[in-house]
Amino acid sequence: MKDSDAITCDEMIAGGKAALSRALAQIESAPDLVSTLALLSEAYARAKGHVVGVTGPPGVGKSTLLSAMIRMLRQKERTVGVIAVDPSSKVTRGALLGDRIRLQTDPEDPGIYVRSMAARDRLGGLAEITVAAMVLMRAVYDVVLIETVGVGQSETDVRGATDTVIFCVQPGSGDSLQFLKAGIVEIPDIMVVTKSDMEQQARQARADIKSAIRVTEAAEASAFHWPVKVLSVSAARGEGVEALIEAADSHMAWLGQGNRLTQKRRSQAQEWLVDGVRERFGREGLKHAGPLELGPGESPFGALAEVSRKLQASYKA
Ligand code: GDP
User: Fold this and answer.
1) 305 or 250, which is more confident?
2) What Å distances lie between residue 93 and 27, 133, 204, CA to CA?
3) Which of 46, 201, 218, 271 has its CA 20 to 30 A from that of 93?
């Protein structure tokens, strides 16, 4: 691919789903092209959407919940981009991909875009390509939902690439609560007990979560700390979905006070930059690169290109 064939950020934003597909194809096929980095930097600067991660173990009801959230968001006339991170595809190339398409959305609706992506064999954080896709979608849609499978600090951890994390818990399964109590799972912004139509078990799960987080919450209570919300939903019955969206919105409103959101996104960008250098040049390259400090509003993609250029030049010399 040549720079002259590349799509610009304006074309991507104006061009609907077809243009976004082209842009995504470009970041996949030519990630280091100058115009790809320019596209990403521009999209990074034009962030408009709220990025929400929805995570939890397999079978908890994430796909069903996501479909219900998408329907509700569309009723509110908000546009939605979805990235479903497929944990299986690094091993069996897309075995679960069919599964992911369970997400029920209207293919004719121009306000919804769904994309499955492989988790790839990356330790910690999402694959670089997933982060790049999120940055593109964030410039186009009002809400970007990222679905990952996990029970905490797994390789599909969404914390580093989202504004708000929703962690789903299955009624009657003690697993996630054990992790929570043991402090293995970092507390998300919102915890949601799925399948609240399993009435007694769902009420019990909610009470258990509340008691499990009370200790940590008490320790961290301060003006700078978001008090985690614990909700229940029945995606099957459509109950609690609106309240969940309101909770996510209020977390975003909270982030919007002062410079919390700016700081959060900047420290995430800082992490991507460090990861990007490590992925391309290894630990040695990282040492060689020296301090990697992003300026306010500076795109990590532009900075990565710059650092890469310098490292390549110094290795050639
Ligand atoms: P995922 O693996 O986390 O994406 O979970 P799915 O959305 O595929 O749901 C797993 C199973 O739970 C399916 O059999 C769903 O029909 C069922 N399920 C999902 N949501 C609900 C719900 O609100 N109530 C009940 N009773 N079952 C649900």
Assistant:
1) 250
2) 20, 19, 38
3) 271
Q: How far apart are CA 193 and CA 202, in angstroms?
A: 7
Ligand 1 atom 18, closest CA = 61
- Compute CA 45 distance to the chain's CA centroid, rounded to the nearest angstrom: 17
Centroid of ligand 1 to alpha carbon of 317 (angstroms): 57
**Looking at the predicted structure, is the pLDDT value of residue 218 above 50?**
yes
Alpha helices in 120-184 (DSSP H): 128-140, 175-181
Q: Say what the pLDDT of residue 58 is.
A: 85
pLDDT at 176: 60
pLDDT of 223 reads 58
CB distance 235 to ligand 1 below 6 Å: yes
The response to whether residue 195 sits with its C-beta less than 6 Å from ligand 1 reads yes
Residues 286/278, Cβ–Cβ less than 8 Å: yes
Ligand 1 neighbour 236 (Cβ under 6 A): yes
The reply to whether ligand 1 has any atom less than 6 angstroms from the CB of 50 is no
Q: Are 109 and 78 in contact (CB under 8 A)?
A: no
Report pTM: 0.91
170 lines ligand 1 (CB under 6 A): no
Query: pLDDT digits over 143-188, tens only?
Result: 999 998 876 555 557 888 999 999 998 898 766 666 666 665 667 8
Regarding the beta carbon of 105 and ligand 1, being less than 6 Å apart is answered no
Mutational test site, ligand 1, from 64, 194, 237, max ligand atoms within 8 Å of CB: 64
